[in-house]
Amino acid sequence: MNNTQTTYTTNKLIGTIVLLFMFTAFLERSVQEGMFFDGITYASIARNLAIGKGSFWELYYRNSWTFSEHPPLMFGILSVFFRLLGDHFYTEKVYNLFIWIVTIIMLTSFWKKLTGNRKGSGYELLLLVWVIIPTVLWAYPNCLIDCTMAVFDLAAVMILFNTYNKQKNSILALLIAAILMVCATLTKGPVGLFPLAVPFIYHLVYKSKQLPKAIMHTIVLTAIMAGIYLLLWRNDAARHSLQRYLDEQLFAALQGKRENTGGDMGRYALLVELFNQLLPAIAPLALTWILCKALKIQPLKEKHTRHIVFLLLIACCSSLPIMLSVKQRSFYLIPSFIYFAMAIALVAYPYYMALTTRYALKYNAAKAMRYASMIAIAGIGVFLYTKFGKVSRDEQYINDIKVMQTILPEGEKVGICLEMDKDYEFLAYIQRYHSLEVNLQYATSQYILIDDAWCKTNFTDTVLVLGYKPLNAPTKKYKLYKKD
User: Fold this and answer.
1) In the chain, which residues have pLDDT < 70?
2) Is the torsion defined by CA of 86, 92, 93, 99 positive or negative?
3) DSSP annotation of 264
4) Three-state SS at 468
5) Which DSSP helix (H) or strand (E) runs through 482?
């Protein structure tokens, strides 16, 4: 077996291990019930849209609340999954898996372009660097809106990069990229506009003498997007929806009227979070460099300095504008992690390929590893089967609501005390399961739900005076009452 074949076998083995790790960790979270509060909320809204509650431009969450925290595109896409698969706990999990796989395919495709390697050797290095960023493996199984936006933005960046790389002046490419950016902004607002910087960054890094062309392309992209939004603005429903989002979310966040999640550091907390998240991703780079030095192995001569600079500048355009708001979360950085990971992986690439070339597997060892992989896949399948349908988080909420499903009619509006209307995680879960809703005008409801941790002590007495009787339901956190 020649050196090229054995090297590819080594990379394929490492790739198998990386993919097994990625999908095991992802699916282990996905086959179980329970998600982060935001994801449960988004799934509830999409399910409501799928069953005819609300509309694309007027998203319905609960009671009279029209959801305006984000633009509607992701909810519209996710609602299609609910229409196709039905209202099951795993419906949004399938959507998460879809976004995860699409992102991986796009990442590996971009990697081939960057490295010039048609077989994509070294893709496993990129995926490893990306997936060990802590928030990446946490965010994607939790139905966060940033993951969907990242797909649209990555597609726009790839299209523009490929067009410039092939030295084509395609108006079609600019049109598609503009549409993708509109989709990104219709998913999570102006933070999805960072691919607009690609023409300028590309020509600055690769073809500095053609900056006027970059400026012209930026103007064209902006004009196309403006034209699309102008058409949307002429639609009353779309205009009212986007205006609510701008007033209630975007402008309020820029003015510092939303919650301050950065603490004393305010806007600069993002830089600390970015450093903490990327620190683990640097480990493969450090390891390959140390091994090459220790074993006296020369890295490959090919360098990708311009690609690295290009990716880092795109990553900064994606992440740093978030500092305009004091409302910051680590998962807001999800789109930028893609480009940081590619840049870090490209730095490590010459060292990694030198190592895998030097220490290639022999044929028998590679064959044994293939059998071991098959056994590992079977074992992982059994492991995931034992996890399917179990509760991974928020067990009290889920178990009690499942009890309510056996007692309450589907879609029932359950009375609650005023204080419970601030228990947002509970509200998300009760909306997500059995299409249940809450009613602050509790005396008009057939059923009343009481949480002693939230409701005042005399609320139970009031409920009893109104003629409600306690139900002998095996709930642990909540007490359920029914009008006599």
Assistant:
1) 1-9, 118-120, 253-266, 360-366
2) positive
3) G
4) strand
5) strand 479-483
